[in-house]
Specification:
By secondary structure, the protein is an all-alpha fold. It folds into two domains: about 40 residues, Homeodomain-like (Arc Repressor Mutant, subunit A, Orthogonal Bundle); about 120 residues, Tetracycline Repressor, domain 2. Helices cover about 70% and strands about 0% of the residues. The longest helix has 25 residues. The N and C termini lie far apart (about 70 Å).
Length: about 200
């Protein structure tokens, strides 16, 4: 394995390599050796930039969780346009993309990683799921203010139903993501009693 490969942005290149390994081989295949092999660099490069492998994984998760802000911004910009159901169905599909879905079990099964994330984000919540929930709740809040969702809607319960149901839907298909119609049906069912229909 080459030891003299110069990485222009070592942290980002290691993150990208880890993402490729995670998507290809799953959480069990994500080891420090697999990451440095994928990045074509010496194993010492990873340990030069991170205290240990769990520290590296925690930074990876936080980096990828921050990327969800772009999808959250897109969802917020959709307030008052299209339909509430359609906007949320599109958002769940983007927020539960391949990388977030692959990271969630990684967090679940690595005690050291969870401990690092708890230190980094003391307010709690599982990284990725917490970002998805925050984006959905913020959108629902603004749509309620805009009058497109009932004023008495329980936003906490709606958010929990949408995020929990979305997570199960996107992780329950070994063959790939669910059909768009399945996502539409989930969102429509959850919101059936709170979305205000425009008078004809």
């Amino acid at each position: 394995m080459p030891t003299g490969v110069h990485l222009r942005d070592p942290r980002q290149q290691l993150f990208d390599a880890a993402e490729r390994v995670l998507l290809r081989d799953g959480p069990d295949g994500l080891t420090s050796r697999a990451v440095t092999d994928e990045a074509s660099c010496a194993k010492g490069v990873l340990h030069r930039h991170f205290g240990d492998f769990d520290a590296f994984l925690a930074e990876l998760v936080l980096d990828r969780a921050a990327e969800l802000e772009a999808q959250a911004h897109t969802l917020r910009e959709a307030v008052g346009t299209g339909t509430v159901t359609g906007n949320l169905a599109s958002a769940l599909t983007a927020l539960f993309g391949p990388v977030p879905v692959a990271i969630i079990p990684l967090i679940t099964f690595r005690d050291g990683l969870r401990a690092r994330l708890k230190q980094a984000v003391p307010e709690g919540g599982i990284a990725i799921l917490a970002q998805v929930a925050a984006a959905v709740r913020a959108y629902l809040t603004e749509e309620r203010t805009a009058g497109r969702i009932s004023a008495d809607a329980d936003l906490d319960s709606l958010t929990l139903s949408l995020v929990g149901g979305g997570h199960l839907l996107f992780t329950g298909h070994a063959s790939g993501p669910p059909a768009p119609s399945a996502v539409d049906q989930l969102v429509a069912t959850v919101l059936a009693d709170v979305v205000r229909r425009r008078p004809r």
